[in-house]
User: Which sequence fits this backbone?
């Protein structure tokens, strides 16, 4: 099935396509944000959740039950016993890139990671989804923490949580990194946000 377009040639937000060779229908989805670094970005100071990436979801983006986003961030870390933490936080107070985060709701975290896993440089990844549920304008969503991986270790997931972000206002999403001992223990490289109709 092709994309439905309006009179201006823009895709309609409710366009539907086929789901593979099956008979199911699938609403459009795709990337709405990507931040790709050319080298590891390290937190500037120690023992604080430093903002490494910021995205603002436009007001009204979650205007129907079942619409949502998936947030994935990734980077590298040096294998050591030094504590390291990464988080996805929604709606912090006045976020600034490189600053310490204040307020907001954490929807995913790696937890404080101190395990040394085989030496050298390892990779980390964290992801979560945020989906609208309930009636239009009810400010009800479900946040689901999907992954927390540091090297070969899989971290504990936070259970699904009901959230009440104001849907008629923009929602700000930040990725934070925190290192306890050495700034270069943890590097931020990438964030991708996908939207689902």
Assistant:
């Amino acid at each position: 099935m092709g994309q439905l377009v309006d009179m201006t040639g823009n895709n309609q937000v409710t366009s539907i396509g086929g789901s593979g060779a099956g008979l199911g229908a699938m609403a459009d989805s795709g990337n709405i944000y990507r931040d790709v670094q050319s080298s590891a970005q390290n937190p500037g100071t120690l023992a604080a959740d430093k903002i490494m990436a910021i995205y603002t979801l436009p007001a009204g983006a979650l205007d129907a039950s079942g619409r949502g986003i998936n947030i994935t961030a990734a980077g590298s870390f040096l294998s050591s016993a030094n504590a390291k933490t990464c988080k996805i936080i929604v709606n912090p107070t006045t976020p600034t890139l490189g600053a310490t985060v204040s307020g907001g709701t954490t929807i995913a975290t790696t937890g404080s990671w101190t395990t040394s896993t085989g030496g050298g440089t390892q990779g980390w990844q964290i992801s979560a989804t945020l989906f609208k549920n309930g009636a239009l304008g009810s400010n009800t969503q479900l946040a689901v923490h999907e992954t927390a991986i540091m090297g070969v270790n899989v971290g504990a997931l936070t259970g699904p949580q009901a959230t009440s972000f104001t849907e008629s206002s923009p929602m700000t999403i930040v990725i934070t990194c925190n290192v306890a001992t050495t700034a270069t223990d943890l590097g931020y490289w990438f964030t991708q946000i996908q939207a689902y109709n």
In short: The radius of gyration is 18 Å. Confidence is low (pLDDT under 50) at residues 1-13. The first strand starts at residue 16 and ends at 18. The chain has no helices and 13 strands.
